[in-house]
Amino acid sequence: EDLYEVANLPKVELHLHHEGAAPPQFIRGLAREKNVDISKVFRKDGSYDFQGFLHFLSVYEAATSVLKTPDDYACLTTAILEESAKNGVVYTESFISPDFCGGGDVEAWRDYLHAIREAADAAERDMGITLRGVVTCVRHFGPEQAKASALCAAETAGDWIVGFGMGGDENKGKQSDFAYSYDMAREAGLKLTTHAGEWRGPSEVREAVEALGVIRIGHGVRAIEDPALCEMLAERDVVLEVCPGSNVVLGVYKSLRDHPIAKLKDRGVKVTVSTDDPPFFHTTMRDEYVNLAKTLNWDASVFRDLNQTALDAAFCDGATRDAVA
Ligand code: ADE
Ligand code: ZN
């Protein structure tokens, strides 16, 4: 009965990529409609086909290439939120990239954002799930392109676009290459996060905190390799957006048993649980919770605490937080 309780808890998710949450059938349908051949993206059984992180990124971008209009993003938003709501998610933040939504042009970005927000507002009314947006630049597209994303973020910062982040290939360039964009986002009042410590080690996480001033870290799990860094993260209340299922499928850790989430928590680091790109990794928020409960013997009270940590670390305003709680 405890597993049942864990599975059915109301959940807060902080780390979800908008395109990465697209169901493969949804992408396949759009591809057919638009006559785009992306058959290499799928396995025979209809799931996404990739092996390893760099291949994942290229399949992700190929799948994303069929999302061509604001209306496509509105439909995608509805599909994502239906799936999340089914899994008990009551509040979620998703990463949305101007690179994919208008190519970094501010006016085009506004059109995409408007469409996404309308779909999100309808989902909130119909399904009781709240979405907020975190504008995201893509690391392997480089610092110049990131500035265009930061400008889009700054121009639309407010009660719905609440944060700025960076995803993509952590092995390209340095966190500090993106300081200009992060400064622009911070000055616009946005809260900051970045992917770090998924592929590179502890120094990447340290640099994210020190050079970019982020208050959350996407993944950050390899911080476990440096006790002094864990102490620093704990002391500064930096929150990790941990995605255990993603880490196992992409091979950061061999199995959930080898995953450091419990050790990080024991070191006093604030951890939360998210899915990253659920259909790519054959996971859901419910699966993540149940798998952690089974593997680590965590009971419902542990997950209630994780959720409170996530809600406290959400980038939305206090009124939104209170409405969710
Ligand atoms: N984009 C989508 N998922 C990602 C991940 N796990 N790491 C970096 N960039 C991503
Ligand atoms: Zn991610």
Automatic annotation (TrEMBL):
InterPro entries: A_deaminase_dom (IPR001365), Ado/ade_deaminase (IPR006330), Metal_Hydrolase (IPR032466). It comes from Thalassococcus halodurans. This is Adenosine deaminase. Residues 10-325 form the Adenosine deaminase domain. Keywords: Hydrolase, Metal-binding, Zinc. It comes from the Bacteria. Belongs to the metallo-dependent hydrolases superfamily. Adenosine and AMP deaminases family. Its cofactor is Zn(2+). Coiled coil: none annotated. SUPFAM superfamilies: Metallo-dependent hydrolases. One of its GO terms (molecular function) is hydrolase activity, acting on carbon-nitrogen (but not peptide) bonds, in cyclic amidines. Pfam families: A_deaminase (PF00962).
